[in-house]
Design goal:
3-stranded antiparallel β-sheet; alpha/beta; 7 helices; 7-stranded mixed β-sheet; about 240 residues
């Protein structure tokens, strides 16, 4: 079975010149990344030689950011084409692997796990969270960004990007259409994530809905609604 993300590897190549980066990647870079990085700087364990996992690493751009903070980083993604892009750009100093959360037991424990706009594309989220819990050291941190449910509602009403959902008012399952690539997506609220993470021994530390920034909108003017944040960002510490 082909992976729909393989066809989007160029779209999420963040090694391109700034003017060539797709808006679908630039929103992550300019809006979500700063919030995630601030959380890491404030909450990461203080030991030296920390190991970081970037799960759903795509083209490796955020894994590179973690590396510049001094972490020993591993990137995992289900798309072989994404991993090719990541290896070409950052493979000299970051380990990348094709796989899902079932491969995490093959690594030494991590102090930090990040995931940028990946978990909403995973149906069996309970297994992934369980694998994250097993892969994190005590007092390790997990931080991830997913689609804000209110943003999805806004775009469904405008008939942009999202389609074939079970409900426009309480969207849970449907598809994200990126350039004709229809990808199954599973929308969850912060409360749903918190309930699941607490069961697996995680303490909630962060809930953020960063707004569209002037910098992003000036560089990537869009006609779509921007009242609701695209991102829901959640951060946790493992007990």
């Amino acid at each position: 079975m082909s992976n729909p993300w393989d066809a989007l590897s160029s779209t999420f190549d963040t090694k391109k010149d700034e003017g060539e980066i797709s808006s679908h990647a630039a929103d992550n870079i300019l809006i979500a990344w700063p919030v995630v990085l601030d959380f890491i700087k404030e909450n990461a364990p203080k030991e030296e030689d920390l190991r970081g996992l970037e799960y759903g690493c795509g083209g490796g751009g955020f894994a590179e950011k973690l590396n510049t903070l001094g972490y020993q980083v591993t990137g995992v993604d289900s798309s072989a084409e994404m991993i090719k892009v990541a290896n070409a750009a950052h493979g000299s100093h970051i380990k990348f692997m094709v796989g899902d959360s079932s491969v995490l037991h093959t690594f030494e424990p991590f102090s930090i796990i990040t995931s940028i706009m990946t978990l909403q594309f995973i149906e069996n989220i309970e297994k992934v969270v369980d694998d994250f819990s097993k892969a994190l050291t005590p007092d390790g941190i997990l931080v991830f960004a997913v689609h804000n449910p209110e943003h999805v509602k806004e775009y469904l009403k405008a008939q942009i990007l999202f389609e074939d959902f079970n409900s426009n008012d309480q969207p849970e399952t449907g598809y994200l259409n990126l350039g004709g690539n229809k990808i199954p997506i599973f929308i969850r609220t912060a409360e749903e994530y918190n309930l699941l993470l607490k069961k697996k021994g995680f303490e909630p530390l962060l809930k953020a809905y960063p707004p569209f920034t002037k910098e992003f909108l000036s560089k990537y003017p869009i006609s779509a609604p921007t009242e609701q944040s695209e991102f829901l960002i959640l951060g946790y510490r493992k007990h």
